[in-house]
């Protein structure tokens, strides 16, 4: 149920400011737990004539504090880039997203200022849904009780939603998705997300090495700290016509041919090439074939790619596109 989405890096302009039903969070991955929250926001917004909206943060608060404390290893990996996050929020009925920059100003904002400046003045919040353990404001001093007290003063209602669990009773969370992706468990990640893990981006020019080896690829730049494990995957590619295209993809740093360490997603279409430069494509990960390897020479690399392509074709022969 994709809607028209407006997103702002500060307050919506006066012409677009309208009472809203709001939820707050990072929403990395927009997994099944997030989807339950969004469904509730959408339902209440429809019932009460409100704009369904989200307040999210960039960068992730944990990333900000990891940098501040010079502990970059504590920053969470990213399940989805901003484009994919906004696309998912729109697909789940959100019409307004405030992307609030998480910086020293926001980290030091008092809980009362957070409520009055952001929730009341900028977003005209009339109904708010947050997790039961939601904390906000300087040193996480704000909690649900403070929100409810403020709501009585400023005219908004506060509700909480219990955690969503999987079939085994485990909490569905971004951390669980990251763990699955880090070990290459694509099936588990898909179950938590409610859809295949994906990376989208514009096709960029590469070194043309794949073409030289007989396996031309579509190249996408990948955001830093991508949650997915480097490796070779069976994927399908959207955005190159009416139908998805079967492909095999390499996600990683190209250790055989590069030492730069930049992560790249390279997808080889199994049903022929395409004029794709500059196009926005979405790559859905279906199955992990193997980890990334460094080969002693290009002939060894070429043989491995050929085997990967055969295995990907075998996958599609069994599972279909």
UniProtKB/TrEMBL annotation:
<dbReference type="GO" id="GO:0006747">
    <property type="term" value="P:FAD biosynthetic process"/>
</dbReference>
<dbReference type="GO" id="GO:0009231">
    <property type="term" value="P:riboflavin biosynthetic process"/>
</dbReference>
<comment type="pathway">
    <text>Cofactor biosynthesis; FMN biosynthesis; FMN from riboflavin (ATP route): step 1/1.</text>
</comment>
<keyword id="KW-0808">Transferase</keyword>
<dbReference type="InterPro" id="IPR014729">
    <property type="entry name" value="Rossmann-like_a/b/a_fold"/>
</dbReference>
<dbReference type="GO" id="GO:0003919">
    <property type="term" value="F:FMN adenylyltransferase activity"/>
</dbReference>
<comment type="similarity">
    <text>Belongs to the ribF family.</text>
</comment>
<dbReference type="Pfam" id="PF01687">
    <property type="entry name" value="Flavokinase"/>
</dbReference>
<feature type="domain" description="Riboflavin kinase">
    <location>
        <begin position="192"/>
        <end position="317"/>
    </location>
</feature>
<dbReference type="InterPro" id="IPR015864">
    <property type="entry name" value="FAD_synthase"/>
</dbReference>
<keyword id="KW-0274">FAD</keyword>
<dbReference type="InterPro" id="IPR023468">
    <property type="entry name" value="Riboflavin_kinase"/>
</dbReference>
<dbReference type="GO" id="GO:0005524">
    <property type="term" value="F:ATP binding"/>
</dbReference>
<comment type="pathway">
    <text>Cofactor biosynthesis; FAD biosynthesis; FAD from FMN: step 1/1.</text>
</comment>
<comment type="function">
    <text>Catalyzes the phosphorylation of riboflavin to FMN followed by the adenylation of FMN to FAD.</text>
</comment>
<keyword id="KW-0548">Nucleotidyltransferase</keyword>
<dbReference type="GO" id="GO:0009398">
    <property type="term" value="P:FMN biosynthetic process"/>
</dbReference>
<keyword id="KW-0288">FMN</keyword>
<dbReference type="InterPro" id="IPR002606">
    <property type="entry name" value="Riboflavin_kinase_bac"/>
</dbReference>
<dbReference type="Pfam" id="PF06574">
    <property type="entry name" value="FAD_syn"/>
</dbReference>
<dbReference type="InterPro" id="IPR023465">
    <property type="entry name" value="Riboflavin_kinase_dom_sf"/>
</dbReference>
<keyword id="KW-0285">Flavoprotein</keyword>
<keyword id="KW-0067">ATP-binding</keyword>
<protein>
    <recommendedName>
        <fullName>Riboflavin biosynthesis protein</fullName>
        <ecNumber>2.7.1.26</ecNumber>
        <ecNumber>2.7.7.2</ecNumber>
    </recommendedName>
</protein>
<dbReference type="GO" id="GO:0008531">
    <property type="term" value="F:riboflavin kinase activity"/>
</dbReference>
<keyword id="KW-0418">Kinase</keyword>
<dbReference type="InterPro" id="IPR015865">
    <property type="entry name" value="Riboflavin_kinase_bac/euk"/>
</dbReference>
<keyword id="KW-0511">Multifunctional enzyme</keyword>
<keyword id="KW-0547">Nucleotide-binding</keyword>
């Amino acid at each position: 149920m994709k809607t028209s989405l407006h997103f702002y890096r500060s307050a919506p302009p006066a012409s677009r400011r309208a009472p809203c039903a709001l939820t707050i969070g990072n929403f990395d991955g927009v997994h099944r737990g997030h989807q339950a929250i969004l469904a509730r926001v959408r339902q209440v917004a429809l019932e009460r004539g409100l704009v369904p909206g989200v307040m999210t943060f960039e960068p992730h608060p944990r990333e900000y504090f990891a940098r501040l404390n010079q502990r970059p290893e504590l920053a969470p990996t990213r399940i989805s880039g901003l484009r994919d996050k906004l696309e998912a929020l729109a697909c789940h009925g959100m019409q307004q997203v405030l992307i609030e920059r998480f910086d020293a100003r926001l980290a030091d904002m008092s809980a009362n200022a957070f409520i009055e400046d952001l929730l009341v003045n900028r977003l005209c919040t009339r109904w708010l849904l947050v997790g039961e353990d939601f904390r906000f404001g300087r040193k996480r001093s704000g909690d649900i009780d403070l929100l409810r007290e403020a709501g009585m003063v400023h005219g908004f209602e506060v509700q909480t939603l219990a955690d969503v669990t999987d079939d085994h009773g485990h909490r569905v969370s971004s951390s669980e998705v990251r763990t699955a992706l880090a070990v290459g468990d694509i099936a588990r990640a898909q179950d938590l997300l409610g859809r295949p893990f994906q990376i989208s981006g514009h096709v960029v020019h590469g070194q043309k090495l794949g073409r030289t080896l007989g396996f031309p690829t579509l190249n996408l730049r990948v955001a830093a700290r991508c949650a997915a494990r480097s490796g070779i995957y069976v994927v399908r590619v959207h955005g190159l016509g009416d139908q998805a295209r079967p492909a095999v993809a390499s996600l990683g740093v190209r250790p055989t041919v590069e030492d730069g360490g930049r992560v790249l997603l390279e997808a080889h279409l199994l049903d022929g090439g395409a004029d794709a430069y500059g196009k926005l494509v979405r790559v859905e990960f279906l199955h992990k074939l193997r980890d990334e390897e460094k080969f002693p020479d290009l002939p060894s690399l070429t043989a491995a790619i050929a085997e990967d392509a055969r295995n990907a074709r075998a996958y599609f022969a069994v599972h279909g596109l």
